[in-house]
Amino acid sequence: MTQSPSGSSTVEAEAFLSAHPEIEAIDIVLHDANGIGRGKIIRRHELMPFFRSGRHLPISILGLDICGEDVHETGLIWDQGDGDLRAWPIPGTLKPLHNTNPPRAEVFMSMYSLDGVPMTSDPRHALARQLAEMESEGLHPAGAFELEFFLLANDRDGNGRVQPARAVLDGRMSTKTEVYSVDHLHGMQPLFSDIYRGAEKAGIRAETMISEYAPGQYELTLHYRESVLDAADDLMRLKRIVRMQARAHGVTACFMAKPVEDYAGSGMHFHVSLQDPKGRNVFVEDVEGQWSPTIRHALGGLIDTMGQSMLVFAPHANSWRRFAAQSYAPVSPTWGVNNRSVALRIPAGDIGARRIEHRPSGVDANPYLVAATVLAGLRHGLANSIDPGPETTGNGYAADTATPPIPVDWRSAIEAARDSAFLRDALGADMHRTFTAIKAAEYARVARTIADVDYDLYLHTV
Fold it and tell me: pTM (2 decimals)?
C-alpha cells in the first residue's frame, strides 16, 4: 500500500462505508485556480482503492481556464507532456450529500507528484504553505468567510437580462431590494432548509441567513474556524451545496460578483484573527480603542500589499464591475472601525474576539488563494512593522489616502500581479505563474469577444 502524503487513511473510508450503506457513488473534487471543482464521480467500490492508492489525474487539470480549456502558458500542459500526477483524498472531507437520488457522497482531494511531493500549482497547497510558515513563527490564524449570492430565475426577462427567482414556496416574484426583510426570506424557506441540511451533513456550521442589498441577493454566514484551511474548505463546499440545492428547487444560484448592473454585487468577506501558541488573540488591545501594535501592523501589511493582490480578490472581468462608490465594495485601501465603506474593517463587539474583516474579495474569488494572500499580507506587515496610517471615519469612498493605490481595472490588476514579488512569495512561484497565466488568457478571451453593448453603441452610429 502506498503511504498517503495527504494524511488520509483507509480507516476513514471503511468507517464511512459502514455508516452509509445507502451511498452508491462519490464525487471526488479538486479545486483549480478559478475555484472550479474538477474531478470524477466514482462508484462505491472504488472508494477504498482511492484512499489506498490515490487517483491518477492529468497535470493539465490545474492549468485550465474558466471554460475548462488548456492554458499553455502555465507550463502545465505540453511542457510536461500532460503526464499524470496523483490526487489524494483530504482527511475529514468525506461527507454524504443531501438530497441526492441515488444517494451520493463527496470528498475533496489535493494533487501530488507521483513520489508524494505537493503539486505547488494546487491552490489548497498554497494556503497550507502559508499556514505552515505562520506556525513556524508561532502564529495561528483563525477565521471565517461570509457567502453572498443571488438566487435567479432560470430564464431571462424580455430584455435578455437575469431576474430574481420566484419564491420556491408559492411562486411570488419581488423586484425590490428587500434588504433585511424576514418575510421575504420565508418564500425561500424550503430551499434554505435543504441548504442547512446539506451543511449539517457536511459538518459545516452554517448560521445566519440574510436578505441582502439587491433583488434576489442573500448572505449566509459561517461559524468561525480555528483552522483557516477548514474555513476555506467550508466556503468551497457551501457554494457547491447552495448551487446543488437551488438547482433541485428549480432556480439558479449565482456566484458572479456583479450579476445585476444597478445593484450591489456579492462579496466574500474574510474575517481573520491571530493567536499565539497559548491561544491568546494577539489582536486584542490592553485598553479598548487603543489598538495593539499587532493589529495595526497587520492592517499596514494588508494595505501595503492590496494593490499587488487585487487580481486574487477580483479575478474575473465581471469582478471589476462590483467596485463602485457607495456599493458596499471598497474602492481604496482604507481601514476603519465598525465602518462598511472601508476595505479593512474592525467589527464592533466583544474585545476578546478582535479580528479584521477583509472586504475586497468578490464571491467569485478562490478562498484558498484569498486566504493565502491575506495571511502573507499580515506577515508582511508584522515583519516590517508597517503603520496603516490614520483610521478612516465616515464615508470611506470619499477618503483621501496616501496609501498605495489599487488598480483601476482588470488588465492593470493582471500586470500588477504578474510583476509582484510579494504575490509570487504569497502563492509560491508555481501557483503565481499558473494563476497569472490563466488570468491573462481569460483577459484575452474577453478582449476579443464582441459584446452586445458594442452593437448597441456603434453598429449604426460610427
Answer: 0.95
